[in-house]
Design a protein that fits this description.
heterodimer; A: alpha+beta; Alpha-Beta Plaits; 4 helices; B: mainly beta; two-stranded antiparallel ribbon
């Protein structure tokens, strides 16, 4: 029984670990993003990219998070280009291991 | 015939001038933006297509009426919008725009059509809670000078998340030379959502007004 539990635990750990490693989200701090109506361009353009799995726009904190599909890559310059074309300025950009949903949950937990 | 075609196109397109004072007068690159403004003395439909992040071409149909209801104007025009400058800050954005058009004007106090030119500029400043815009636009045709100025200022009641609807109180003051002898003042409730933008209000002549914007 102990062996069975250990195997199940190990299998679960491996699965969760792989999922965690596969997640790549590009998170940008955006200047000038003050209105949802105007910021919709960022979301629409990001979602139109074949590499994008999910987009989270945090208007209050000026954050755009672009979660990539598993195995896909997207350069910081490409994300910056989309945001700049939508009329905004990227102050900071980084790749993080959290999903867009996790970033949303963290932002909402801060309220 | 040309006028009818322009007008029909403009009806799909519709409402530039006054609406340009609402928010950005164009959408993001490769998007269509439709705008409309409806009131007894001013009805407008406008649409444009953003060719670049800074340039948009469109068509507009505008009906104007004097305060005494005696004179009317119908303008169908092709428009060009240019973002001249944008300043992005951490908590604010401000813009300087050029808007211009050329079209055909008809009126009930003169015969035939006149070619009208409508160059103008707008400056706006916006944070998540405050809004200000000033617009000046010339409406010139032979023997006609309906120059237009407006100012808008307002605040939102609270900040919202991206998916939520944000309510604003906006007050607009505007005047159009020759067609009106007074400054029109309109307090409006503005609702902004990521999918739509609408305003409703009643002006100081007790006339209802409704504006909308939508990006495709």
């Amino acid at each position: 029984m102990k062996h069975l539990i250990a195997i199940v635990f190990a299998a679960l750990s491996l699965t969760v670990g792989n999922a965690y490693a596969a997640t790549q989200t590009i998170k940008a701090q955006v200047n000038g993003m003050v209105c949802a109506f105007c910021a919709q361009g960022i979301e629409k353009k990001m979602l139109s990219l074949s590499q994008t799995k999910e987009v989270y726009v945090d208007l209050k904190n000026g954050v755009v998070a672009v979660e990539l599909k598993e195995g896909q890559t997207l350069t910081h310059d490409a994300v910056k280009g989309v945001i700049t074309d939508a009329g905004y300025e990227v102050a900071k950009i980084q790749t993080v291991p959290e999903t867009a949903k996790q970033i949303r949950a963290a932002a909402q937990a801060k309220k | 015939m040309i006028f009818s075609v322009l007008k029909a196109a403009a009806c799909i397109a519709a409402a530039a001038t006054a609406l340009c004072a609402h928010a950005a007068p164009m959408g993001f690159k490769d998007s269509w933006m439709a705008m409309g403004e409806f009131g007894p003395n001013w009805r407008e439909l406008y649409a444009n297509y953003a060719l670049t992040p800074r340039d948009a071409l469109g068509a507009s149909g505008l009906y104007m009426r004097s305060d005494d209801k005696a004179r009317t104007r119908d303008l169908a025009e092709l428009t060009y919008t240019r973002l001249l400058a944008r300043w992005n800050q951490k908590e604010a954005q401000s813009n300087l725009w050029f808007m211009g058009g050329v079209g055909t004007l008809r009126g009930n106090d003169f015969s035939g059509n006149k070619t009208m030119f409508t160059p103008g500029v707008q400056y706006d400043y916006e944070t998540k809670r405050l809004y200000f815009a000033a617009t000046a636009r010339l409406y010139r045709a032979p023997g006609v000078k309906h120059d237009y100025v407006s100012a808008r200022a307002g605040f939102s009641f609270y900040e919202v998340d991206y998916e939520e609807t944000q309510p604003w109180l906006i007050v607009e003051a505007r005047r159009m030379r020759d067609l009106s002898d007074k400054v029109e003042i309109t307090p409006m409730l503005r609702l902004i959502n990521k999918g739509y933008f609408i305003e409703v209000g009643v002006n100081n002549s007790r006339q209802a007004r409704f504006n909308f914007m939508y990006i495709f």
